[in-house]
Each structure stands twice: as C-alpha cells, then as structure tokens.
Amino acid sequence: MNLQGQIIKRSTQLISFLLGIEILLGYKLWFPIYREFPLMSAFSWLDFSIGTLGDGLLTLLILIALVAIFLDWHKKLALATLLGCLTILILEDITRLQPWIYTQVALLILLCFNKKGQAKSVLTSVLWLMALVYIWSGIQKLNLGFLQETFPWLLSAFGFNLKTDTSAAMHTFNYVFAVVPLLECLIGVGLLSTKTRKTSIILALLMHVFIILSLGPTGLNWNLIILPWNLCFALLLLQFYALKEPLLVIKDMTWYAFNYAVILFFGLLPALNFIGYWDSNLSSTMYSGTHSNVIFYFETDSTSQQTTFRAAATLPILGKKQASIISETWLTSWSVYDLKVPFYTANRYYKRFGKQLCETTKNSSKAGIKIITRSKFTAKTIVTKCSCLTLLESKY
C-alpha cells in the first residue's frame, strides 16, 4: 500500500474511533435514559418516537458499524448501516444533527466510498472539505459578537478579562481580535495551495491547541464533545503535512464525483445561512457569537423551587410576600448540562420547543418563551416573547 493509501486508512480509523468516543461522551443524546431535555423531531409532520429501547438498539448498531469501519470489515456495508441508523435518530431528534456529526460522517463517506486508483482524488476531497470549514468558520466570526464577547470569553480561560459590552464602543483589543477570524479564513485558503499548505497546517494546529486548552477541563470546561472533533482535525492535518507528493486541488478533484458534493454542501450552501435559508449547524458557525437562544420562563412557588428544568436560574417577582418566583431556563445551557451538546439552533424549532415545554408546565398562564436572535454582523439582539397561552393555541 502506497503512502496515500496508508493515509486514507489511518484517517478512516481516526475518524471512526473519535466519532465513537464523541457518541459515548454524549450518550444521553443517543440513548435517552434519564434524559430531561425534550426530543424534537426534524419535521413537525413526522413527529415520532421509537422509545428508549429503539434508540439504544440503533445507537448500538452505529457503534458496531464504527468498529467495523475501524477494522476495515465490509466498510461500505458498515457505512450504509451507520447512515441509515443516523438518519432515523436525527429525524426523531434534530438536536443529534451536531456540526461534528455532519462533518465527520461526510469525511467517512469520502474516505470509504472510493475505488482503486482514486487515492489522490479522495485526499483532495478531504482537503477541500476541511479548507471550506475553516473558510466559512472564519467568515462567520467576522462580527461584533465574536470580537466583543465570544473571543474574550475564550481568552478568559487563561486569566484574561477583556470582555466588553456590545452596546459600548469597540475597545482597542476588539480591533486586534479581528485578526483571529481573518487568520482562520486564510488557513482554509492556504490549505488549497501547495505553496502555503504547510504553513497553514502549522497555524491550524496552533488554533486547535488553543481551542482544546480554552474549552477543555483545564479551561472553561464547556461543551467537551468538541474536543475529540478538534483533535480529529488536528491529526488529519498532520497526515497531510507528512504527504510527500503534493495535492493539486483543482486538477485532482475532477476524478472523484463526491468532490462536487463537497463544494455544494460545504462551499456554496453555507452562504445561504446569511439570508436564513441554510441552518447554522450546517454552516460552520462554531462559536461565531451570533447564535440564537431561547429562554423558557415559568412560575414556581417559593416553598418548592425544584423544577425539572435543572439549568434554570431563578429570579424573584416583586411583590408583597413574594409568594412565587419566576424561573428562567436557557435552552443552550440546559441542553449542554443534560446532553453535553447545544440544542439545534434554527428558527422553525423555537416555538415548537416552547409549546412542548408549555404542555408540561402547571401554571401556563405565567409561562412562555423569549426568543433571542442576533444580527449576523452587529450581533444586535432582538427579543421576541411568546406566552404559553399563545403557543398552546398554535399548530406548531
């Protein structure tokens, strides 16, 4: 087996192994035993549940398929099994369609469905996919939310307190921070050129080390499932660094039909996210500072503040005896707390989430949701409030 074939084999093993680790880390997302965060079907007209036993069986088949792919046993059959089980599980609960699932499964498809003599084209397609992820991730971060909130928050893991209010004037540091998304975008562009590829790989490795340190257990300890994903990308880049024969991304891509799908799904369709026609989870918006959020608010009496919404932050109502309090649950915090992943951010799901939560609330007259959306460039927030009375009468 030549070096290119060895890289394909190692990359396949790497992705299948780390994808399995990610699924195990967030097991409640796939095997919903003791799960609190609600399931949300991908389509309102296809609302179904196969139950804990069904979810467990499909998850087990996914893990077996990943083991088979790792060991190179009937890879195409194993991948087909993986895709079939994943499709059912995602249709049942859209929260399972995480960015790391989307990208790593796409990489497995590229690596497994190849024919003899296509090794160079397969590696080119992998390089294209990774480069486009970096490019769009950098473009998505070119906004005030990332510059004034998200990146300073990441730096706070190292003891720096540089966060500023988005309503305030830009701080000098915020202008300097603009280098970060530009650099990430240039990393992606640089990967596509043989002259700048190794420099881009080194910069990308440094970026992934920063992410792992800032979000890992020694840092902010937040959304730990993305750590294996970052490790996966870093180790894949090392494979390309060791590749002696250069990949010509234009010439070599024409020999592999899946390359055109990569350009479509990772290069063209993410542009539609800026006008609301392609979801954020599919557009490399990781930690871009513009994600929407939903707050579920509800009333509880002061003698019993325990709720099923574990991530709730309770706020007192002004009154004579303060006989009740208003609790607020941020869906992202709750989802990360319970499932170890953020919930799926797309406008069409917010009111459906709200209605589902309202149906489990005792006093729905004093409950509802607040939808917080942010501008793609200025990060200006717009808050839309919907009461449970309105949501329960709707047909979401």
Descriptive keywords:
396 residues, alpha+beta, five-stranded antiparallel beta sheet, globular
Question: Could you characterize what this model shows?
Answer:
With 396 residues, the protein is of the alpha+beta class. The protein contains 15 helices and five strands. Strands 2-3-1-4-5 form a five-stranded antiparallel β-sheet. A hairpin with a 6-residue loop joins β4 (368-374) and β5. The protein is globular, with a radius of gyration of 22 Å. It starts with a helix and ends with a helix.
Kindly state the number of beta strands.
Answer: 5
Main structural class: alpha+beta
The neighbouring-strand order within the major sheet is 2-3-1-4-5
Number of helix segments? 15
Q: Termini, distance in Å? A: 55 Å
Write down the secondary-structure element order: HHHHHHHHHHHHEEEHHEEH
Radius of gyration: 22 Å
* Backbone shape: globular
Helix content: 40-55%
What is the strand content?
5-15%
Provide a short characterization of the protein structure.
With 396 residues, the protein is an alpha+beta fold. The protein has helices at 3-25, 27-30, 51-70, 75-92, 99-112, 119-140, 144-155, 172-177, 179-191, 197-215, 226-241, 258-268, 331-339, 347-358, 388-393; strands at residues 293-301, 313-316, 324-330, 368-374, 381-387.
